[in-house]
Amino acid sequence: MSNELEAFIEYITVVRALSKKSIQAYRSDLNTLEETLKKPLIRLNSGTLLKALSSYKNKRTLNRKLSSVNAFFDFCYKNQFLEEKTKLKFAKIPKLLPKFLSYQEIQNSLQLIDRSSLIGLRDYALILFLYATGARISECLALQREDIERDWLYIRHAKGEKERIVPIANVAREAIDNYLNEMKSQKEFVWCNYKGGSLSRISAYKITQKYLGVSPHVLRHSYATSLVTGGADLRVVQELLGHASLLTTQIYTHIQKRNLKETVEVCHPMAKEML
Fold it and tell me: H or E stretch including 179?
C-alpha cells in the first residue's frame, strides 16, 4: 500500500470517522487497484485506471469503485499530493421504474387472508394500512394508537424526524379498528407479534411476501403510483410520501407517461392504424 493510500485510510478512519464497513470497502477497492497495476494510484493516469476498471461489467459495482478512486484523488489534491484535480466520470445507469402492484392485485391477495384469527386480522390491516397511507415500513412499525385520529394518520417518527399528516381511507381505518378491538392487551404500539411484543421488520416483510410476494416498500410505490396515474399533482404526492426533494418523487412521472401512452394506444382509433 502506497504512503498516500495509507494517509487516505487514516484520514477516513480518524478525521471522517467512517464505519468499519466503509473503511474496508475503500481499502479493498483502492489497494486491489494498486496491487493489480503494481503502481501507486497517484502515479496512474485516468486512461490506465478506466481500462483496469472496465472488467467490472456491473455498472453499479463499477461506480462504487470509481467513487472510491475519486474520493482518494480528491483527498490527494486537497493535501497537495497532486497538482491537478482528477475526477473520473461515473457510468450511466438507466433509471428503473419502481416495482408496484395494481389495486386489483392487492385486493385479490387480501381475499386470501383468513380473518377469523387475530393474526389474520393483523395481516389484513397491515397490508391495507401500507397501501392506504404510503408509509415507510419503519414509520408503520413505530405507529402508536394515538397516531390515528379519525380519518388522519399522524406520522411522528418519519425519516429525518419530519412529521407529516396523511389521510387514511375508511376501509383501512376499519380494518385496524377490527384488529385492535380483537386484541386482548392494550399495547402502546399498533402492530404486535403473536407473543404480544412489537412486530419486527423481518416479520412485516414475511407478511407481505406471504400474501403479495413483495416487500413492504412495494406497497409504498403502489400507493404513489395509484395517486399519480389517478391524476394527483406531483407536489401533493411528494408531501404525502414525505420526500425532502421533488426529484425523488419525479420517478413516478415515468409511470404517468407510460399510463398515458397505454391509454392512447387502447382508446384512440388512429393508434391501431399501420403507418
Answer: helix 170-182
Q: Judge if 255 and 187 occupy the same domain.
A: yes
Tens of pLDDT along 137-150?
Answer: 999 999 999 999 88
pTM of the model: 0.63
Q: Is residue 273 part of a domain?
A: no
Instruction: Catalogue the long-range contacts made by 184-187 (C-beta closer than 8 Å, 24 or more residues apart).
Output: none
Strands laid side by side in the 148-149 sheet? 148-149, 152-155, 164-167
Domain residues for the domain of 200 are: 103-264
Q: What does each C-alpha distance from 8 to 42, 66, 73, 186 come to in angstroms?
A: 12, 16, 9, 54
Number of domains in the chain: 2
Task: Convert the pLDDT of each residue in 99-132 to its tens digit.
Answer: 899 999 999 999 999 999 999 999 999 999 999 9
Closest by CA position to 164, among listed 196, 204, 133, 208 = 133
Cell numbers found for residue 41: 494510484
pLDDT at 273: 60
* CATH code where residue 201 lies: 1.10.443.10
* Largest separation between any pair of C-alpha atoms in the chain: 72
203 shares a domain with 124: yes
Residue matched to cell numbers 486537497: 78
Give the catalytic positions in this structure.
136, 159, 217, 220, 243, 252
Instruction: Calculate the dihedral angle through the C-alpha atoms of 138, 206, 151, 171, rounding to the nearest 10 degrees.
Output: 170
